[in-house]
Design goal:
InterPro entries: UDG_fam1, Ura-DNA_Glyclase_AS, Uracil-DNA_glycosylase-like, Uracil-DNA_glycosylase-like_sf
CATH superfamily of the largest domain: Uracil-DNA glycosylase-like domain
Strand order of the largest sheet: 7-6-9-10
Distance between the termini: 20 Å
Helix content: 25-40%
Number of domains: 2
CATH architecture of the largest domain: 3-Layer(aba) Sandwich
Largest sheet: 4 strands, parallel
Family: Belongs to the uracil-DNA glycosylase (UDG) superfamily. UNG family.
Shape: globular
Number of strands: 10
Catalytic activity: Hydrolyzes single-stranded DNA or mismatched double-stranded DNA and polynucleotides, releasing free uracil
Keywords: DNA damage, DNA repair, Hydrolase, Mitochondrion, Nucleus
EC number: 3.2.2.27
Order of helices and strands: EEEHEHHHHHHEHEHHEEHEHEHH
CATH class of the largest domain: Alpha Beta
């Protein structure tokens, strides 16, 4: 992902730029070199280039906007002999610009003080679509609450603020899984409230920490669906995150030893917005079944959501189920007697992804080795 240039608009592409989708008229015959553009100041137009033999006088080919309109107050442009031939180009994820320096300059001093962590640590492919959200009054109120709880800048530690995860890890999900690469979203609830457990990915724990019971059940289910899966002795799921699995908790922080302590403070509204962004753009940079096709490249084509338990299912209730695959079941917690084991979600997800994006669109659920070993 390219670094921000403080003086330029940048695009924060998640992958190497995919092929540009060809421009096409909305109606009427094919138009090669005609484009009409509406601007805030008025209307500008370029005129189709004529063949060399069309006129012996080249000056006749140089028509200005006023020539076409006949008056500066004209309200319509008519292209003689053709129906409407306005060329449209669909907005793609990687062509949405974001000027980080301009955003920072737009903030009040209080906002700069409160949003420094987001500016510094949130993945830029996400920040460019969430930067207006984090300026909203509810999010500023959330940040004031977190500051009172001791959550400050990126160098804060759980020991100093008694809140998990460490500030630098609150948005780790956004860095391991850029927006355009999301294939699957696993919705969690709270970060783990115990020491050294939470590191910004739902259900995951750093290497060296005992595998939580819910994750043990997740591993057991994968083993039943993919017998070749070797159940690891660790619970670090960074390998999945880098493979396009966004592990998103509904609340992104929790007070040490107090589950649910940061609920109803604003995190739910923020992560609902994250899910809305995925609803629109999820799958934008995933491969196409036909590598020679550029149809819909760069636009949201759908992803898989796994929602386990009523809390997670509420978060995905408004999704477009014609666009996405939404898989629901009981929570993997061993306190739930049945309903998770045997749900078949991991294979169902890959079957859907392969049909939509080809073999390269699947998640390698069995690979948790290299990335987790290095973490």
């Amino acid at each position: 992902m390219p670094e921000a240039d403080s003086e330029q608009e940048v695009y924060y592409e998640d992958l190497i730029s995919p092929p540009t989708e060809p421009e096409r008229p909305t109606t009427g015959p094919k138009v090669k070199e005609t484009e009409l553009t509406a601007t805030a100041a008025g209307v500008s137009a370029s005129v189709p280039a004529q063949k060399e033999s069309a006129s012996p006088n080249p000056l006749k080919r140089q028509r200005t906007l006023l020539d076409m309109l006949g008056s500066s107050s004209a309200k319509k442009i008519k292209l003689d002999g053709t129906p409407s031939a306005v060329v449209t180009k669909r907005q793609t994820l990687n062509t949405i610009p974001f000027n980080l320096n301009g955003f920072i300059n737009s903030l009040t001093q209080e906002q700069r003080d409160l949003l420094g962590l987001e500016i510094e640590t949130m993945g830029k492919s996400w920040l460019k679509l969430l930067h207006e959200e984090i300026k909203q009054p509810y999010f500023i109120a959330l940040k004031k609450f977190l500051r009172e709880e001791g959550v400050g800048g990126v160098n804060g530690t759980p020991q100093s603020c008694k809140v998990y995860p460490a500030p630098k890890d609150i948005y780790s999900w956004s860095n391991y899984t850029p927006l355009g690469r999301v294939r699957v979203v696993i919705v969690g609830q709270d970060p783990y409230p115990g020491p050294k457990q939470a590191h910004g990915l739902s259900f995951s724990v750093p290497r060296g920490v005992s595998v939580p019971p819910s994750l043990v059940n997740i591993y057991t289910e994968i083993k039943s669906e993919y017998p070749e899966f070797v159940i690891p002795k660790h619970g670090n799921l960074i390998g999945w995150a880098k493979n396009g699995v966004l592990m998103l908790n509904t609340c992104l922080t929790v007070k040490a030893g107090s589950p649910g302590s940061h609920s109803d403070r604003g995190w739910e509204k923020f992560t609902d917005k994250v899910i809305a962004v995925i609803d629109k753009w999820g799958g934008a940079n995933l491969p196409t079944v036909n590598p020679n096709s550029t149809t819909n490249v760069g636009v949201g084509r759908g992803v898989v959501f796994m929602a386990w338990g009523s809390w997670a299912q509420k978060r995905v209730s408004g999704l477009n189920r014609h666009k996405h695959l939404v898989l629901t079941s009981a929570h993997p917690s061993p306190r739930v007697t049945r309903g998770f084991l045997g749900n078949g979600h991991f294979k169902s997800a890959n079957d859907w992804l392969e049909e939509k994006y080809g073999a390269d669109g699947k998640v390698d659920w069995c690979n948790l080795g290299v990335d987790a070993e290095q973490a």
